[in-house]
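Before relying on records like the one below, remember that each one covers exactly one chain. Contacts with other chains, cofactors or solvent are not represented anywhere in the record.
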Amino acid sequence: MDRTMQPPAVKAVVTLIACAPILTEIASGNTPARALLDPRIDLFLVLAYSLPVLVIRELAIRQRLGGFGLFLLGLAYGIWNEGLLAQTLLRFEHVPIDRFDHYIYAGGFNFSWAAVIVPWHALMAVAFPMTLVHGLFPPEARAPWLGRRVFSALAAVLIALIVVISVARRPHAQMLACLFSIGLLVTLAFLFRRSETREPKEDSHRAYPFGFGAAAYLIWIIGAILLAAHRVPAAVYFAAVCGSLALLAVLSARLGLTRLGAAARLALGAYFAAAGFNAAAGVATHSVAKCLTGLILAIIFAVTCFAVLPRTGTAPETSAA
């Protein structure tokens, strides 16, 4: 019998739906916290963030995708968000971070900005929210949360939104290129499935993964901004941005930070750094609201890491993919 939703998973689903927009739009400062009081904005954020990450999570679990497969789905989401919805990937100027204006722009796409913001979404809007919720609800981490009919319906809604926006919005050539890229990334993701290896339970440190996540976030983001500001050659820029991200991923795996407990704390460290970056931007722009939002969220992320998440991890059957 196809159940709509397993009762133990209700809290996990609600948590993922509620926190996905906050972890991205609010923590980064792209959307002010007061905007959440507008039901129209809430609906948009649910459709733009919560619905995709829930569908991606269910797809990854059902297809037993490994970490790289999930990352490819996250890249597809990044193109959906910044290419089809916000269209920042198409901007020659007025990019959200102006250091990327007029830099490595070709064929109607800002490739310097895409190299940063698309992987950013893959991690901060897809992989990390999933990892954090799995850390909060470890018994439900490896099981599907939705019944097949509900999952199929939500996936159909998401696919319809992607296709309609791709066809209806201008410039048509770039929109269709985004649609093709999304389809290609989703197809490639199915080639990377996880192995069913078993690991002992872990008793992860609290501070180390949190600190690694915060430092890695700042190093990668600030490094990319500095490279763009100095207009280094395109080959150097892409090698540095993509290579450093790959190096951080390898280090995370070798240091055991991809296990459930540690991965959730690493994600919280990255969000802590993003909130701190938002607070610093508030200081620079004399925005009290940005400062308060960044500081409050940074405190929440730190408290969640050190006081809310369970200290002991779980066996692999409930660990993060």
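The CA atoms of residues 68 and 215 lie 22 Å apart.
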